[in-house]
Amino acid sequence: MGDDAVRVALLTPVGSGALAVVGVAGPGAQACVARLFSPQGPQPLADRPEGAIVFGRWRSAADGPGEELVVVRRGADTLEIHCHGGLAASEAVILSLEQLGAMRQAWPEWLRAGGTQEIEVEAREILRAWRGSLPKVARTRRGLPSTGSAARRVSVCGSCSRGGSS
After folding, report:
1. For residue range 74-101, what is the model confidence (pLDDT) as tens digits?
2. Which residues contact 100 (CB under 8 A, 6 or more apart)?
3. Interhelix angle for 87-99 vs 29-36, to 10°?
4. What is the CATH number of the domain that holds 42?
C-alpha cells in the first residue's frame, strides 16, 4: 500500500458494543469522508478546526436516510468516525470508503502506518487479547474482576500493596 493511499480500519474490538470507531487516514482522507458525511450546521468539515467533534449524517448509499454519527478531526489527514456499535454500522462505513478507493487495514497496521511506536501497538494487542479472555463477570467499583483467577491476582497484589500478607 502506497503512502498516498487513504487507509481505513475498525479501531474498536469486533462484537457488540454501544460504539464503534473507524479510523480514516492518508492524503485525501478528509475529502473522501466529506463526500459521504453531511455535518449538521452550515460549516463544512474541512473548515472545522483540528480536534473538532462534528455530528452529522453518513450517506453510504444514494437512497436511504443515512446513519447519524460523529466525526472527529484528528488532523488534516486523520479522522475518526464514531458510529453505532456492532458490525453492521461500522462495516457499512468502511465499505462506503472502500468504494471511494480507501484501502482497508487491520487496526495494528493502521496505527503503525500513522507513526505509533511498535511497543504501543504490541501493548494494545496484548491488552485487547487479555480483555477478550476474561469471563463476563460482575465488576467492583474499581472496575476489577470480582471472580476468577484474575480476581485472585488482584486480591494478592492488593494485599501486598497495603502491606498485608497473602
Report:
1. 888 999 999 988 888 899 999 999 999 9
2. 6, 32, 35, 36
3. 120
4. 3.30.1360.120
Q: Are residues 121 and 139 in the same domain?
A: no
- Give the separation between CA 28 and CA 76, rounded to whole angstroms: 9
Rounded Cα distance between 76 and 104, Å, is: 19
Question: Rounded to two decimals, what is the model's pTM?
Answer: 0.69
* Element housing 7 (H / E): strand 7-10
User: Tens digits of per-residue pLDDT, 107-148?
Assistant: 888 888 876 667 777 777 777 777 666 555 434 434 544 455
User: Is 144 inside a domain boundary?
Assistant: yes
**Pairwise CA distance, residues 144 & 164, whole Å:** 19
What's the structural domain count of the chain?
2
C-alpha distances in angstroms, 100 versus 22, 24, 94, 95?
Answer: 15, 12, 10, 9
- Residues 145 and 125 grouped into a single domain: no
Q: Are 151 and 144 in contact (CB under 8 A)?
A: yes
HEC sequence for 70-86: EEEEEECCEEEEEEECC
